[in-house]
Design a protein that fits this description.
CATH architecture of the largest domain in chain A: 3-Layer(aba) Sandwich
Number of strands of chain A: 18
CATH superfamily of the largest domain in chain A: Zn peptidases
Largest interface: A-B, 81 and 81 residues
Number of helices of chain A: 15
Radius of gyration of chain A: 25 Å
Shape of chain A: globular
Strand content of chain A: 15-25%
Largest sheet of chain A: 9 strands, mixed
Number of domains of chain A: 2
CATH class of the largest domain in chain A: Alpha Beta
Helix content of chain A: 25-40%
Oligomer: homodimer
CATH topology of the largest domain in chain A: Aminopeptidase
């Protein structure tokens, strides 16, 4: 029996088992595992137990690990390969407010027919229960056909992803030896576009800073003091305005150290994506890419670092007008990082920059709000080409290597703590309404998602 | 009988009548004429009636004029001079909250002994009932000694000064012919310093603007859009930062048109005031004057125009951190004007300036918050020198010609609507706690204030 014949039988088995797989997912979705809400603590645990029981039933050695927060579920298959693979997903879900905007109870999921095809409707359908079940169903079909699970799988399911993952880093550190693999497979992202599968191979990092500038010990009357006393809002405006030059480049000394231009291959790949910036911006009422001169729109969001002001406040900004010369002004600023930029060097350069604008009569304080480097996966690992090929075969369209403008902290944690890259493959769509009322996951995503994992496993095992 | 002998008798009469005058003021202060509080509407009217009755008793022809808000009290003495003089004050007072910070009921006034001398304690003692009673007591003593009131006085008392004077401009326009005089005498300001009397001869004007910059039609995720989409806070920061250059000068084209350097005389006078900027700033926790290079601190606040950001808001500025790329940013900006600067030209230049920073993908809206030119009194009118001399004689220290960094709208209205300059003479002190709990007015201010007006009247009548 060739590998290929085995794969065909696994795919057949997935098709035969489609309705039973959907029933299992609906059962899982009925557990209201909202991790941010203490009232649902027992439900979160119930979802962990449901997963453990499923995995035990499949032949995994599965355990629940308690943490100070919600439990971790860890499962393993038998040894037998040279490349352990870690699969990650999260079994907790977002809150459901506002409940009145749901067309049906969020934890009474169903399969709905829509003009765009059948969808699984319910909280967690796409984020992330439906996605993590795609690889579990692939394991199940593999076992059915071959009699045993793929060897050397490590499964890690978290119950705190929607509440900031407070227990994750300590847990990874504590169980590093048991969790370390050659690669992490994360199923919590979207396709590039409807029907076009993708592997996210790079994620921007993030540095968050809050800056508070204080002048006088109280708000002053701008008549009595205007022109004589330092105005913290003006000091702040000057410091922030000078963060970017006229071409959109960040001016901090050394900021671009470690930033790398796109490889020719990736540049060609991204070019072939035919990204329509006008359409992307048009959906939010904008039209013109406004980033660095000489960069393509996809480079701007995926491969170029940037500085953004996320919030600003100072003085009187309510209705009407008060001629105060304010005692204080504050801003929240974040930097998205790429390549090998060092978060702490960026932070230090930002602080030096702001300090250089602060006159004698003002003080400045900084508050740190996180820092993580960019994640750039080593796509020369043959697993990437193999997974790309597998996805391309399943979906009939070439799988794309894409970037992500945001950060996915788990990928950084896997890299930093366990020293492994992540392969981010997900089957979400832009209209899945994750974190919103009426969340859904396309049945096609679920079915072809499981088939995709079967193909990827076949290539890697 | 010489003028001087008459004056001596008027001053004697004021000294003899001191206790009775204080009793009258306490009676006036017992009326809780809070103009902003509808619950005190009848009290405001009672204060107007009290004044009218006082003035009628003194021989004035006094009337209450109803307005859409609180009434105006207008009184006149007999004709008989070539220079009608208008005296202005306001009989309404500030609210008293927070009541628990008062050491005694705010409308149960009393004379208190303090280490710095006797004070009249109660709401309105300094702002403005105690001050307006200084000239009424001077009229009373004059009448007692001379048998008739000083001729050609027009008295105007407002009941809405603490609530924005909504009825004032229409009233001045409607009664312009009856109210027009050669000069307005306003008793609602402070001395230059304790024991050093002053005439305020110039006030800065004001232009208020609110600017709102909008980008996308919603807050965006700074990961997905950062580097590609316009950030309204950055646009605003760049526009505001560019309002002033490195030397503290406002950069708007034509901004300084109409601004005049100090006359040599005034420069010398202000120099002689020995203004201690370090002390002035030190009281609010600052130390270094930060205005235009090459200007003295008093010039900065009294004779130079400036631009101040009074408030700014945009994005997420609460606790923690949200990586939003905000849909909107807004700021309130005000310009203090001097000399002949034209408020509407300054407003237009500001709007053009901001627009030049707004990219295609953003919109900008402006909201006007008032505009008034600076008031610069014509001190070549001999009345100024005469009043200065009178004040100097009463207080034993040379009266100062000073400026004010803020605006006193009534002076602008008298100029614009009635075509007359104002002579701003008041006897308040920095520690009077106007608008705050435990407001007070020094008995010395009250007594020597009335004597000052007697001397000024003697010089001008």
């Amino acid at each position: 029996m060739t590998q290929s014949a085995d794969l065909d039988r696994v795919l057949e088995r997935l098709d035969e088992g489609r309705d039973a797989a959907l029933d299992r997912l609906l059962q899982f979705l009925r557990i209201p595992s909202i991790s941010t809400d203490p009232a649902h603590r027992a439900d979160v645990r119930a979802a962990a137990e449901w997963l453990r029981d499923e995995l035990t039933g499949l032949g995994f050695s599965a355990q629940i690990h308690d943490t100070p927060g919600h439990p971790m579920v860890v499962a393993r298959s038998e040894p037998g390969s040279t490349r352990p693979l870690l699969f990650y997903g999260h079994y907790d879900v977002q809150p459901v407010d506002p409940l009145n905007l749901w067309d049906r109870p969020p934890f009474d999921p169903t399969i709905e027919s829509t003009p765009d095809g059948d969808v699984i409707r319910g909280r967690g359908a796409a984020d992330d229960k439906g996605q993590l079940m795609t690889f579990i169903e692939a394991f199940r079909a593999w076992k059915h056909v071959r009699g045993s699970l793929p060897p050397d799988l490590i499964l890690l399911f978290e119950g705190e992803e929607e509440s900031g993952s407070p227990s994750l880093q300590p847990f990874l550190r504590q169980h590093a030896d048991d969790l370390r693999a050659s690669l992490a497979m994360i199923c919590d992202t979207s396709m590039y576009s409807d029907g076009r599968p993708a592997i996210t191979t790079q994620l921007r990092g993030l540095v968050g800073e809050e800056v508070v500038i204080r002048g006088a010990d109280r708000d002053l009357h701008s008549g009595s003091f205007g022109g004589l006393a330092a105005n913290p809002i003006m000091v702040l405006a000057k410091a922030l305005a000078a963060l970017k030059d006229g071409t959109g480049r960040v001016t901090l000394p050394g900021f671009y150290d470690g930033v790398q231009d796109l490889s020719e291959t990736l540049a060609r790949d991204w070019d072939a994506l035919d990204f329509d910036a006008g359409d992307f911006l048009g959906r939010v009422g904008l039209k013109t890419p406004i980033g660095e001169a000489g960069r393509t729109p996809l480079e701007m969001v995926w491969n170029r670092p940037t500085a953004e002001i996320n919030g600003i406040a100072g003085g009187y900004a309510g209705d009407g007008f008060k001629t105060v010369l304010p005692a204080e002004a504050r801003a929240k600023v974040s930097f998205r990082l790429t390549g090998q930029q060092d978060p702490e060097r960026v932070r230090a350069a930002f602080r030096d920059h702001v300090r250089s604008f602060v006159p004698d009569d003002c003080t400045v304080k900084f508050h740190e709000h996180g820092g993580s480097p960019a994640s750039v996966m080593d796509t020369s690992d043959p697993a990437f080409a193999a997974a790309r090929q597998a996805l391309t075969e399943e979906w009939g369209r070439e799988a794309a290597y894409i970037g992500a403008g945001g950060s996915i902290p788990i990928a950084g944690d896997f890299k930093t703590i366990l020293g492994m890259d992540s392969m981010l493959i997900g089957f979400g769509r832009d209209d899945d309404r994750i974190h919103s009322p009426n969340e859904k996951y396309d049945v096609e995503s679920f079915v072809k998602g499981a088939r995709s994992w079967a193909r990827i496993l076949n290539a890697l095992r």
